[in-house]
Predict the 3D structure of the following.
Amino acid sequence: MTGPTTINLAMAVTVGVLYTAGFYLLLQRSLMRVLIGVVVLGHGTNLLLQIAGGPPGRAPIVGTGNAEAITDPLPQALALTAVVITFALTTYLLALGYRSFVLVGHDEVQDDVEDRRIATQKMPSASLDDDQDHTDEDHTDEAATRQDPS
Amino acid sequence: MTALIALPVLLPILGAAITVIGSRSPTLQRMVGVVVLLAVSVIAVVLLVESDARGPLVAELGGWAAPVGISLVADRLSALLLLVSALVTLAVLVYAIDQRIADYGRGTVSTTFHPMYLMLSAGVSLAYLTGDLFTLFVAFEIMLTASYVLITRRTSAAKIRAGMTYVTVSLLSSLLFLTAIGLVYAATGTVNLADLAGRIELLPPGLVTVLGLMLLVVFGIKAAMVPLHFWLPDSYPTAPGPVAALFAGLLTKVGFYAMLRTQTLLFHREEPWTLLLVLSVATMLVGALGALAQNDVNRLLSFLLVSHIGFMLFGLAVFDAAGVSGAALYAAHHITVLATLFLVSGLITRRTGTVALDRMGGLARTAPGLAVLFAIPALTLAGVPPTAGFVAKLALLQAGVAAGPWTTAVAGVVIIASLLTLYALARVWVRVFWGEPKPALPDDDPDDEVVVGTAERTPVPMYSATAGLVAVSLAIAVFAGPLSAVTGRAGVDLLDREPYRTAVLGVGP
């Protein structure tokens, strides 16, 4: 269980590819791609957990052989738990993407309206005594930003 | 006694099951929630007293001894945070129940709210109590999955974006956490925290650094440490008042607790941690300056939340008993005060119908009680003596000044960030409570669950729940002596590590 273990190079490369593809997809704007990114990344993580158990061996059943020859069961238990959790969350994200599609008409991640409003503010209204009425202006700003898709 | 340690996790899960089965009966759902959280609070008190008197308490799940089985551990730090969290969860639940009754009547209840609320509470308790890295992951998942449902429940088109940011970022941090667990297991062959404490020291230093940094990033995302904080001011303000208060009070602090636990137990250092010092300065300043730019009261509070995470990071970065105990005390104070401020913001929004600061005014005249409820937590957060915030901040400053010139410099930043906090909250005060009273605006988003602009229908229990939390934060100030003694002993234990390891593994080093 402990000590230096050599790992299968093909497995290591596979994990690397899955992580790369997963992170790339996570950075996309379409929620569907983000979802697939999470799925791919989840596969990479579960594979990594499997590899963490060391080289494969016999089934870990008590009384079927000596302890050296059997494979480490703990990472498999961990991976199993992780698979269930990622599966549930994938379903949830899928539902969320569908809700976004129903409400907004597409599943692109929207811009943050409030952030952009603050960024385009002409004067930082940070002074203590200024509660002037730039209310209407703010309001139109907000409406304008909301319509502007870029 | 050992069975008692599992109850803060089991009771809320059982309660969640009952609320699902009894979803036809609103009264049953409400009763179960309140009773369960009351019981958890009482158990947390017992655990705190016992662990302070006898050292860490350990429960071995399924009867398997420590490195093989999963153990639950209640030491001073986890019991204290469990107690504060349970009290906050209870107060927020009372507030949420009364808001629901006021807006929708006594006979209706949401099918998802109560089960998810209790599951979140179970996840928080498990995160505090677990002595196992993988169970910590499971605890985070329980907590976060419940929070995904709570934040995206009945969303409108404008708000679903924020929910997505929150879910995606949290999922990413969870997958990174899982990766870190895989690497830790591959390197050491165990996921038991107490066992890891001894084994990680035997690894090559480069590998230890990688594992330490991975866990720092994972919990940094969950605790909203700059530059990993961006999701928080985006998502929290869109949640309904009580949910935002619960998230602001608990979730980031659970992330910080996990960071505190893993870094002190697994990656012991003798010197202050330069990287975390830099990150804490960035967190304090970015959060405080970000708060100054906001016009939305909830976003302003979210940025202040980020800023004050930096204070706790500073305590951990000092990495001595004084710093760590200061961070623990600060976390306890921060959980109460942030939840209170978000609840007060919910009350303000009900009265004004808007979250925009420049469209409010004159509430000191129309709602003087609300002004008092805002003023006390605001002064506490800013750290004005003699509030709890001052006590906690003083502990951090003393630790910083005692640890060397660089930490003294960062202690200066702590003072600057406190002043900026005071300035940001003074802006809120001037705009919301002073000036001419403005008429309440109509609800701009009638589709969502939050009903605003209905001051007449704010029931007294909502004020009482908020006042109860104000009382908790005042109690922290009043009992500052015994509390800082407890956190002081907790800090010594955290850095000593032996009491924890001995309690879990049953033998000395």
